[in-house]
Amino acid sequence: MDIHTLLHRLGQYYRKHRILNRMSQEELAERSNLDVKYISGLENGRENPTYITLNKLSVALNLPHPMIDSIAQEDDT
Questions:
Q1: CA-CA-CA-CA torsion for 49, 53, 57, 58, nearest 10 degrees?
Q2: Alpha carbons 26 and 3: distance in angstroms, whole number
Q3: What does the buried/exposed string (b/e) look like for 16-53 if buried means 16 or more CB atoms within 10 Å of the residue's CB?
Q4: Residue 73: partners with Cβ closer than 8 Å, 6 or more residues away
Q5: Would you tell me the crossing angle of helices 3-20 and 36-43 to the nearest 10 degrees?
Q6: For labeling, which of 39, 52, 53, 75 is most exposed (least CB within 10 Å)?
Q7: Which helix H or strand E contains 66, and what residues bound it?
Q8: Rounded CA gap, 4 and 10, in Å?
Q9: Triad 19, 39, 30: Cα angle to 5°
Q10: CB 57 within 8 A of CB 32
Q11: Model confidence over 4-61: pLDDT tens digits?
């Protein structure tokens, strides 16, 4: 899968969950401490978010974050 397809799918994932949570882009931006223009760009596949940004969005939308969940479940032994 190329990066453009991946970014588009990622944006659609967050848009879907924002809508399911009945949030506007402005509300999501406020809750995640991100700019509303960034949220729009992300949802349209124009932004390449960092891990920290994905975490902020997941927390704001009350979504599990797969990487965080898998790291938390790792056995340190």
A1: 100
A2: 26
A3: ebbeeeebebeebbebbebeeebbebbbebebebeeeb
A4: none
A5: 120
A6: 75
A7: helix 66-72
A8: 10
A9: 80
A10: yes
A11: 999 999 999 999 999 999 999 999 999 999 999 999 999 999 999 998 999 999 999 9
Q: Which amino acid is at 74?
A: E
Q: How many residues does the chain have?
A: 77
Residues contacting residue 2 through CB under 8 Å, at least 6 positions apart: none
Instruction: Assign 3-state DSSP to the chain and report helix, strand, coil percentages, each to 5.
Output: 65, 0, 35
What pLDDT does residue 26 have?
98
